[in-house]
Amino acid sequence: MAYSTERQKKESSLYKFHAIIKESIVTEEGPPTRYHLKPRTDSRDPSKPYIKVTFGERHTKKLHKTILLVGGTGTGKTTLIDVMINYMLGVQREDKVWFEITDDQSYYSQVHTQTRRITVYEFYLQESPIHLTIIDTPGYGDTHGVEKDKEIAESLLSLSKSAEGIHKIHAVCLVIKATQTRISERELYIFDAVQSLFGRDIAENIILVLTHSRGTIPKNILTAVKEAKIKCAVNQQNQPVYFLFDNCQTEPADETNEMLKQSWDLTFTEITGFFIFIENIKAKSLKITQGVLEKRKQLETNISDLQSLNQKIDTKQNELKQAQEAVEQNKKDAEENKNFEYEVDVVYIEKVDIDPTVASVATCCTVCEENCHYPGCWWIGAVWRCSMMKNNHCTVCTNKCHYSKHVKEAKIYERKTRTEKKTYKDLKNNYDVKIRKDESLVKKLEEELQKLEIEKIKLVFEAFHSVETLQMITLNTDSLLTLQHVDFLIEKMMEINEPEKARTLENIKKRAGEKKQRALEYLRYSIKK
Fold first, then answer.
1. In terms of residue numbers, what domain contains 180?
2. Please, what is the average pLDDT of the chain?
3. pLDDT(33) > 80
4. What is the pTM assigned to this prediction?
5. Beta-ladder partners of 53
6. Residue 280 belongs to some domain of the structure
7. Is residue 423 in some structural domain?
8. What integer pLDDT is reported at residue 115 of this predicted model?
């Protein structure tokens, strides 16, 4: 009799989900029987900075919600996505079936692992009253390093700008294990990086999703979130809005195991509350996010240009010093216009390979011999589609060259130094022909140095303006992505005699506090690795 009842239940489930089971593959016999959905994917297009996975056909009259999932590797984002799908399909525990769309063995997941692109899941289920888009980010802060995290931000920017992309978002879900008692420096960096993507209007759309929960109130992790000053939506008691999920829905069904039943009930009670939340929350446009990311990219470019310019200034100062010493040591020969030799440090540009598993291709200018977009450039084929191009010209390289002068490959330019023998004749050929007879070689070198210093002042002010703008528009005013450059900018402000602006930057450091400083050390350590 019991066997007959079980058989009836199984047949009932097969009938209930007949259409979707027909479009699925059995991956494991149950109970619960696990089925893998067969979605459409455009992951074979390497020019896109994201992978799009679509299941079902969209109906424009249905409510459509978009969420962003962010969390470190191992937090349970994959299982969470599958929980959402089963909830939308109306799966009950007694159905003894489980549907999955996130399969590490699938083609798009293999590409995902290799390229670290974000994945956009689009679920257009007839059984659900709403359509859902989930933007799943690769694990922030893992062993692939900070440069890969920058590429995630670049991917989100490209996604928000593309015609078929995402232009508004309803919820940003910070995924954390409920069993944790503290926020680590790595996690603080992860959540800081996420909050640094958005404008100030997004705070009420950021929620905590606590996985691996047994249903108890996660006091420790909620306290840790508050202490870390992670901005998120709060309830009427001024407590962070959170939802609890267990991760054992695929474990073998056992009617006598009360804990498994409680786990299922907890997860599906919470997922109901989660969907009520996103159905009622107002979407936020990603226009401000685009502005934040553009300004942050500009700051990165300013800092990179400043560091490169510093090398040029150091080289020019060294050249001036060596030329002065050579002329002084060979004063008699110089006065008599005789040739003599001396050693000098020479800077040269060399193109070197980059590891494509660590960073994507670079956009480089062959005229200026500069790296215009590195890291983070996804447009492998068409140079003109690089985000650094505007009106067919580069916005980064010194001469703002036409895109046709640029190349995309797994190589970048590096400045290197070697010692060479020079002659007094070389000096005269390099400089005397460019100046009037009554001007000295040293004076010419000093003039060139002065031009570099003027360019330096311009770049320092541009970088400071970027920091000020980010302070005004971003949700995360003391972002680690900004803090990592503050010491360098303070030093440059003092060099150009701007103590007031240096103090403004010092105040940003103080406001960040000790926890941010420890997370900053994690960030710097990751960059060195």
1. 2-285
2. 80
3. yes
4. 0.74
5. 41, 121
6. yes
7. no
8. 43
